[in-house]
Amino acid sequence: MIGEKRALKYRINWKDARQAILKERIGGPGLRFDPDIKTKSAAEFSKRIKEGEYEYGRKAAAIFSGFLNPSAHVLEIGPGPGTVTVPLSKKVGAITCIDLSLRNIAHLEKNLQEASCDNVDVIHKNWLRTDDVELKDGYDLVFCSHFLWMIPDLEEHLEKMENASRKYCAIVQPAGRGGLVKEVYARITGNEYAGEFEPDGDYFAYVVLREWGRLLNVSHFSFTNTMTLEEKVHSTASFVGRFVEVDEGVAARIRELVLPHAGEDGTFVETNDVVVMWWEVA
User: Fold this and answer.
1) How many angstroms separate the CA atoms of 61 and 91, rounded?
2) Average pLDDT, stretch 99-117?
3) Dist CA 176 CA 84 (whole Å)
4) What residues pair up with 224 in beta bridges, in sequence order?
5) Between β-strands 165-174 and 217-227, what pairing exists: parallel, antiparallel or unpaired?
6) Is residue 26 pLDDT above 60, yes or no?
7) How does 237-271 read in b/e, with b if 16+ C-beta sit within 10 Å?
8) Is the pLDDT of residue 177 over 90?
9) CATH assignment of 14-280, given 3.30.710.10, 3.40.50.150, 3.40.50.620, 3.40.50.20?
10) Pick from 253, 251, 239: nearest CA to 34
11) What is d(CA 130, CA 143) in angstroms, rounded to the nearest whole number?
12) Nearest to 166 by CA among 131, 138, 135
């Protein structure tokens, strides 16, 4: 049963701020330097999480296991290659994953097979087009990870999450960006960095949920992310490309700017922070 929403006299106008953030981005990475960049980036990301032994997912799953029992049925929205899915599947009874990207699903199914995860059901569907009546109260936990940036209507998304849960909901989001991508952005665009890459979904979601009267538990963790030079160029270009077209010349400039920051072995090792919010819906 979904909890009632509070009737507040005064509310924070978060919608205008979020719409302004979304509007200033050009609508998706403009990456003309490589027509296969999305396929390559998906494969690189899947490889990194496995090489990192699913550190991000293991730490998120450890937080979830603090309030879930081992027989819990979980709904994951936008699982990607299984960053959280694979380690969480070892701690719960079953996971249902919903993802619209066939590219992501291919990596997810491969990783699930390699990790012998036989309690995960994968559904190819647009989460926002799922049937609320069919999903209602169907899961002990409904969660999404690094997903809010894709959502046009944040309140609709949160309402759908709560509708599908009979116990808990959770959001896992990046908590800030590394300094190098900000530096590259400034050098490429000629504009001083003003927070363009900061993850915006977590604090907007927090405001919405507190307005609704939800009492959120908030935790955080850090994990290590290791990239090759090519992966670092692709990753940096995916951010810069939200604001400017990245052709071969711009990609070469990005490579030139990031290369001096590589370690002795030629890799880039960064520590990233993640915030986890979870709450009871009933």
Assistant:
1) 8
2) 97
3) 19
4) 271
5) unpaired
6) no
7) bbbbbbbeebeeebbeebeebbeeeeeeeeebebe
8) no
9) 3.40.50.150
10) 251
11) 15
12) 138
Tokens of 12: 């924070």
Report pLDDT for 19.
82
Q: What is the mean pLDDT of residues 170-177?
A: 92
Question: CB atoms < 10 A from the CB of 279, how many?
Answer: 19
Confidence of residue 188 (pLDDT cuts 50, 70, 90): very high
Residues 6+ apart with CB under 8 A from 246: 29, 30, 31, 32, 33, 237, 240, 254
15 in helix, strand or coil?
Answer: helix
Cα 71 from Cα 75, distance rounded (Å): 13
| Per-residue model confidence as pLDDT tens digits over 130-161 | 999 999 999 999 999 999 888 889 999 999 99
- Rounded distance between C-alpha atoms, residue 215 and residue 282, angstroms: 11
CB count in 10 Å sphere of residue 199: 18
Is residue 279 within 8 A of residue 208, CB to CB? The reply is: no
Neighbouring residues of 37: CB distance < 8 A, sequence distance ≥ 6: 29, 31, 234, 237, 238
8 Å CB contact between 80 and 149? no
Q: Which two tokens stand for residue 123?
A: 């559904």
Exposure b/e, 116-127, CB count within 10 A at least 16 = b: ebeebebeeeeb
| pTM for the full predicted model | 0.92
CB-count exposure of residue 32 (10 Å: 0-12, 13-18, 19+): middle
Alpha helical stretches, state H, the chain: 14-24, 37-51, 55-64, 85-89, 102-114, 132-135, 154-164, 179-189, 201-211, 229-240, 248-258
Rounded Cα distance between 165 and 142, Å, is: 6
Compute the average pLDDT of residues 161-173.
97
